[in-house]
Amino acid sequence: MTDMTDGVYSDPNETPPLIEAVPLGLQHVLAMFASNVTPSIIVAGAAGLAFGGPEQVYLIQMAMLFAGIATLFQTIGLGPIGARLPIMQGTSFAFVGVLAGIAATQGLSVALTACLIGGVIHFFLGSVIQHLRFLFPPLITGLVILAIGLYLIPVAIKYAAGGAATFQMEAESFGSLMHWSVALSVVVVALVLKFFTKGIISNAAILIGLVVGYLLAIAFGMVNFSAVTNASLFMTPQPLPYGFEFSLGAVIAVTLVSIVSAIETVGDASATTKAGAGREATDKEIAGATYADGLGTAVAAVFGGLPNTSFSQNVGIVGMTGIMSRHVVTIGALFLILCGLLPKVGAVIASMPLPVLGGGVIVMFGMVAAAGLNVLSEVNMNRRNMVIIAVSLAAGLGLNLVPTAVQYLPGVVKTLMTSAVAPTAAVAIALNLLLPDEV
């Protein structure tokens, strides 16, 4: 499929024939599908929602629906909003650490309110994003992405081992051979398909691995289909399903991550134009991409969805196929919207046992950390930069692992200090501005 069209559609406004465009759009969805729904499952678990219950199903539906809507903001656009490039939007892993912490301690109402306000702030970053880029050289962005991955890896191991009582699993079965057999089957299948196949199968390796693990879990009697049976055929999103509850600390934490997410989107927009058209992204495209990021996040939050961002793995598909058509990605977005309106799709995903999901996120979260290391590989590892890395990671991850170390701080400050990502970013930015360059 890819050889037939390689390099032909380098203009974002061109559209391949439908017989090619539809499978290409589906290819974009398959590459990001698992990563898109996973953050909602994790945050729902942190909030104490019943595993496989209707509220978790709803959050999964919102992840699919608003990933599609946010993608339309990017590909079709509205005035200055949208890069009008083949950029796939999806639920962002960058916010998981912060939102899981907020949801666990203050509830989903506070978390989603922070997402709404953070999305509005993110939207307005589009007008100044070019002036903020100096604050986020590869040293900072790489560190933040690495911190996100390192924070999430223990979550992946917990899921693979069977979860815990807080996730509606039997505590005594934690770490059982059955759980690990299912989780490792996902890892093995995903790796084999990723590196020994090509095209759609390679890009959908993690999703196919999850399907194999899911089938194995069914064979082991681990899957309960009652939620699928009880799910309705169609759903209408509900505005503010958890209410509106303001917390300054939560808003500050989400906003800090939003800035990092905006810089990531700038990189994805630039990478997309380089990969598909051999040129740099224009200022208009970068601003439009950032506007779409923020608008997608704010609109999603109104209906219970988590923040959206551009998906880097889909940039790789543009580079692999040579197809820059934004309308191909629009087709993928429409497919996501359709899935988001069908609760039985969300119920099937929600019925997936935690060890199945754990196998997938071991790979996904590890790749987040590896992506951070890849960005840091561009950095000159002199003593100054190594000190910045050391102190930033020690502060961010250390306080997150030992939250009682700051238990006497005011609530707003404590939320920020224990969020892992926010202190890592803040310390790294401050040190990068204050420490003199080495000669």
Automatic annotation (TrEMBL):
Pfam families for the chain: Xan_ur_permease
InterPro entries with a match to the protein in the record: NCS2 (IPR006043), UacT-like (IPR017588), Xan_ur_permease (IPR006042)
Keywords: Cell membrane, Membrane, Transmembrane, Transmembrane helix, Transport
Transmembrane segments: 29-51, 58-81, 93-125, 134-157, 177-197, 204-226, 246-266, 328-350, 356-376, 388-409, 415-435
Cellular localisation: Cell membrane
Topology of the protein relative to the lipid bilayer: Multi-pass membrane protein
PANTHER family: PURINE PERMEASE C1399.01C-RELATED
Family to which this protein belongs: Belongs to the nucleobase:cation symporter-2 (NCS2) (TC 2.A.40) family.
The name this protein goes by in its record: Uracil-xanthine permease family protein
Organism: Tateyamaria armeniaca
